[in-house]
Amino acid sequence: MLNLLVVLAVVVASTALVYAAGRAGQSGPVATDVAPFLSGAKATEHAVSRYHVRWYTITMIFLAFDMEMAFMYPWAVVVADLGAMAVAEMFGFLAVLMIAVVYAWREGALRWV
């Protein structure tokens, strides 16, 4: 119990020390710190401006392939243990993704202009 109290006291003291050091070193914000970064140029539009609708389609396609990789990494770890069935399941998963890409391509989602 005494060890727990000592550790808790050290954690509280460390947190208070870090907080106090941060507060003591603060000065007012500098104009360059609060300005948006745009390679030194002035911004021409508002930061919360609307995006063109075609960006949403590209974003959804990116997320689909990003999720593909999120599923493939753990699969690659266990594929040797699971055998041919795991390979067949991954080919099925990739086939569904390929069908989605072909559909998006056919509908013109990948056409930029």
Largest sheet: none
The fold-level CATH name is Methane Monooxygenase Hydroxylase, Chain G, domain 1
Distance between the termini: 69 Å
Q: How much of the sequence is in beta strands?
A: under 5%
Number of domains: 1
The CATH class is Mainly Alpha
What is the share of helical residues?
Answer: over 70%
Class computed from helices, strands and strand pairing: mainly alpha
**What is the string of helix and strand elements?**
HHHH
Beta strands, count? 0
CATH architectural category: Up-down Bundle
Could you explain the architecture of this structure?
With 113 residues, the chain is mainly alpha-helical. It has a single domain, classed as Methane Monooxygenase Hydroxylase, Chain G, domain 1 (Up-down Bundle), CATH 1.20.58. Helix content is 71%, strand content 0%. Helix 3 runs antiparallel to helix 4. The chain starts with a helix and ends in a 6-residue tail after the last helix. 0% of the residues are buried.
